[in-house]
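Notes to self after the Tuesday call (sharing in case useful).
The group wants a holo model before anyone commits to mutagenesis around the pocket. I volunteered. Ligand is adenosine-5'-triphosphate. Logging inputs and output together so the record is complete.
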Amino acid sequence: MAKILIIDDDKASGRTLELHLDAQGHTVTTTTSIDEGMQAANEEEPDVLISDIRMPGRSGLDGLPEFKNRYPHLRVIMITAFHDMESTIDAMQKGADDYIHKPIDLDELDASIEKLLNLNGKGSDYILACDPTKMLTPLTMVGHSRAMKEIFKTIGMVATSPATVLISGESGTGKELVARAIHRNSLTPDGPFVVVNCAALVETLLESDMFGHEKGAFTGAVARQTGKFALARGGTIFLDEISEMSPTIQAKLLRVLQYKEFTPLGAEKAQATDARIIVATNVDLAEHVASGQFREDLYYRLQVVNIHLPPLRERKEDLINLVETLLGRINHEMHRNVSHIGKDVLECFTHYDWPGNVRELENILMKAVALSSGDTLTRDMLPEGIGHGSSLLASELSDAEDDMPSAKSLAEVEKAHVLRVLNEVDWHKGRACEILGVSRPRLRRIIRDYQIEAPPEITPMNDEGH
Ligand SMILES: Nc1ncnc2c1ncn2[C@@H]1O[C@H](COP(=O)(O)OP(=O)(O)OP(=O)(O)O)[C@@H](O)[C@H]1O
Ligand SMILES: [Mg+2]
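Result:
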């Protein structure tokens, strides 16, 4: 049975409805204005709203968009008068799920409520459409949004060509997944897929990681090492965080693209490579070109095909699909069978901004599954910020410190730790980089991606400053 909220300025009519629905076993709250109804919705979290249109103050039509916005899963039935076709159409366009005419036919109303509740399966929980026992590989990529469909099409078109592909998108949007999908659909799916993280290593090490080195090529080069370009022969090399490459390595990569050969450090002869090159960036490379940090000629050679993954907040229509897939995967890994998810959880997800994109969603689901004992994910299993769609403010630091770590996702811990270090060094970014062991561009990205904000009394030092 459902929780139903009635808004009708005509008290007698509201009361009649209430008595009838109550007798059907529903839990009913009756209010007489939009504002009162809004407040009740906040407290009661109803499944169904039945609202009159014509009322003094805000009309039912005025209130409808706000209700749908705040409670996307709330089912709304509008009560309209026969002569009022315009407002009926308007109501449906504004997101009403159904309407019933005055005078109200109670059988018609019951049928409408039943139909709306069935849309949601169990009533108050969303039941996952996927078979949670189905084996889903970590490489399954999903998405119904137009942007994702276009991306799948592009992958299909370019996979079998040798063209270099540049994949751009914020952290956690699925860049590596796209790279792997291209590789799997390429002409050499059984060949190696070799990953190089260009931000993880200092220049010399990155260079020898990519191209290899001869014994004695530099201090510490005690033995010959095969580089990743050599390892990737007959397959794909994936250069991640390409914007972090130094000018020297950019020049060498350009040579690889031009001549299909590379020279290991300290070697005399160049070696040929047929590896398919895919690169990824979570910053706007064009901006780096404009500011002189990235070679323009290299940029144009890399972005023969450009696949841009939009942030999750711009394709929330993918959320349910992603939740289903990720939960299926997590269930499989954790030997669980979580198949129901509270509607309020989906509501929180819809309102949240997802700075860490799909990876953040995955972390949150994993943690929630770990916390749940039954087959249902409920709102109290979500981290605090998600309910309110907020970014982490410096004032939240003490909370973050108090209840560290086991129940938190990696992203949350990282966010809190970076913030703590920044505060300890009075936002001196150079010192923070030293403590955290990251480059300045990386710290800048972390601050931006997690939307970490300085407390008002501190003016952040600019990057070059002390
Ligand atoms: N469309 C999708 N369908 C299913 N899973 C996805 C999708 N997009 C991302 N994921 C999952 O989210 C996680 C992050 O994806 P991935 O590592 O590819 O992101 P990324 O853009 O490379 O992130 P980063 O910039 O942090 O390296 C992975 O576990 C991946 O499987
Ligand atoms: Mg990645």
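Two things stood out.
The CA atoms of residues 396 and 402 lie 10 Å apart.
The chain has four domains: 3-123, 125-134+313-388, 146-309, 391-466.
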